[in-house]
Amino acid sequence: MAETFDLIFRGGTLVNHDGAGPADIGIREGRIARLGSIAPDSAGEVVDVTGLYVLPGVIDSQVHF
C-alpha cells in the first residue's frame, strides 16, 4: 500500500540538523510524517515551495542566509 499524506510541501530547500538541501515534506494528521522525495500524487494538497527555505520544527526570529 502506498504511503499517503494530507499535505506535501514540495520542492523547497529543507534546513535541519543535517544541513540544507532539496526535499519534500509530507504531513499527515498535522505532523511531519516524511522528509525526502515524495510523489505529488500521494497527497490531497500539494504546496509548491520551490525557491523557499523550509525549517520544520524551528522557530528562529532572526535568520540570515
**Main beta sheet: strand number and arrangement?**
5 strands, mixed
Distance between the termini: 40 Å
Strand segment tally: 5
Query: What is the fold-level CATH name, i.e. the topology?
Result: Urease, subunit C, domain 1
**Which class of secondary structure composition applies to the elements?**
mainly beta
CATH architecture name: Roll
- Oligomeric state of the chains? single chain
Helix content: under 10%
Q: CATH H-level name... which superfamily?
A: Urease, subunit C, domain 1
Helical run tally = 0
Instruction: Output the helix-strand order.
Output: EEEEE
Low-confidence blocks of residues? none
Domains (count): 1
Radius of gyration: 12 Å
On the 0-100 scale, what is the average pLDDT?
88
CATH class: Mainly Beta
* Approximate shape: globular
The fraction of residues assigned to DSSP E strands is over 45%
Notes on the structure:
- The chain is mainly β.
- The chain has one domain (5-53): Urease, subunit C, domain 1 (Roll), CATH 2.30.40.10.
- It contains no helices and five strands.
- The protein has strands spanning 5-16, 19-28, 31-36, 43-48, 53-54.
- Strands 1, 2, 3, 4 and 5 form a five-stranded mixed β-sheet that branches.
- The chain is globular.
- The N and C termini lie far apart (40 Å).
